[in-house]
Amino acid sequence: MFKKIYKAIKKYDTIVIARHIGVDPDAMASELALKEAILLTFPKKNVLAVGTGGAKFAYLGTLDKLENVDYSNAMLIVLDTPDQRRVDCPEIDSFSYKVKMDHHPFVEKFCDIEMIEEEKSSACQLVLELLYKTKLKRNQSIIEKLFIGLVSDTNRFLFNSNSELFSLIAKILKEYPLDLPSLYQKLYMRPLHEVRLQGYIEQNMKVTENGVGYISLTSDVISKFSADVGSAGNMVNNFNYIDEILVWTMISEDKKNEIIKINIRSRGPVINTVAEKYHGGGHKFASGARVTTMEEAELLVHDLDRVCQEYIKNMEGGEEK
Ligand code: AMP
Q1: Residue 296: inside a domain, yes or no?
Q2: Do 253 and 137 share a structural domain?
Q3: What pLDDT sits at residue 319?
Q4: 242 and 151 in one domain?
């Protein structure tokens, strides 16, 4: 399938690369790195990497405006997004050819070529493999971006650690010396006010009977710490390995967009089935959802608690055998 994608890239002179709304390092790094690789290989092509960015990820590069595109002769590559409604690009249906490269569980088919590799760590890994399995060129800057995205999505190789992934990393390290401390600094540096917000969450997180840690962050609290909804939600990644907590969730009010954003993580129970019930989805152990009222958010916490209860029951049953 990589060859088929390469052939399509070769054929189209205008290529737009998009990814999901609510940008994260894997999504943004994969689209910018792929754009760079296509331009390095085919300098005359018109290649745009689009979507709403974030000042936080400016170190990865800048995104393009979707302008002057003759859709009837353009190809769209969608990275890291399983469903059309979450693609951060308008006019998807106007493109003449569409390719999807994703590592989420399948949700729906909306492209001509659909590469869905759920066992892969990240969109960046898929792009890396595309570079190594086809004639697309690579350089230091492309590899650094892809490495940062991959490290971010695997939480420093916590979620995915199979030998295939490490072989790929060994291959890139042989070819490109990576200055890990400086790359990690770009990815993980954060302002003090965010750390203070984390302290607030640590102090105020509630825990249900079966081990769901949750906190509701109102717009007022988020502003008090001079944070934004995105960075508040991202803190969900900092709450693993708490003895009493199996599943944890940040419930962040986004007053401007009139939604409540929910980020969920788990170290055992499968949570994406619950997220799907609340206009969300994602991976088994890392999901997100969106609701409109705090009451709905409470129902979600209740459902997560039930999933934990079931998980604990199964674990105990397993131990007895
Ligand atoms: P996040 O907590 O934003 O890092 O998201 C974790 C995972 O859940 C990612 O794979 C997201 O693509 C997915 N996800 C987050 N929010 C939603 C949503 N509203 N609908 C579907 N998937 C989501």
Answers
A1: yes
A2: no
A3: 62
A4: no
Cα gap 271→22, rounded to integer Å:
19
Provide the token pair at 265: 């993580």
The pLDDT of residue 133 is above 70: yes
Pocket of ligand 1, beta carbon within 6 A: 20, 22, 24, 86, 104, 236, 263, 279-283, 286-290
| Degrees to nearest 5, angle at CA 207 with 203 and 210 | 160
Domain count, the chain: 2
Minimum CA distance residue for ligand 1 atom 16: 288
**Mean pLDDT across the stretch 120-124?**
97
Helices within the chain (DSSP H only): 2-11, 25-41, 123-133, 140-153, 163-175, 180-188, 192-204, 219-224, 229-234, 272-277, 294-320
Q: CB count, 10 Å around CB of 55?
A: 6
Residue 321 has pLDDT above 50, yes or no: no
Ligand 1 centroid–CA 177 distance in Å is 32
Ligand 1 centre distance from Cα of residue 122 (Å): 13
Looking at residue 71, the DSSP 8-state letter turns out to be G
Q: Whole-angstrom Cα distance, residue 214 to residue 98?
A: 39
The pLDDT of residue 230 is 87
Gap between the Cα atoms of 49 and 62, Å rounded:
9
Range of the domain at 262: 196-316
Would you give the DSSP letter of residue 98? E
> What backbone torsions phi and psi does residue 233 show, to the nearest 5 degrees?
-65, -40
Confidence of residue 299 (pLDDT cuts 50, 70, 90): very high
The residue-averaged pLDDT of 194-209 equals 97
CA of 29 to the centre of ligand 1 (A): 17
The reply to whether 202 and 118 lie within a common domain is: no
Q: Are residues 213 and 176 in the same domain?
A: no
Other Cβ atoms closer than 10 A to 195: 12
pTM metric for this prediction: 0.91
d(CA 201, CA 232): 9
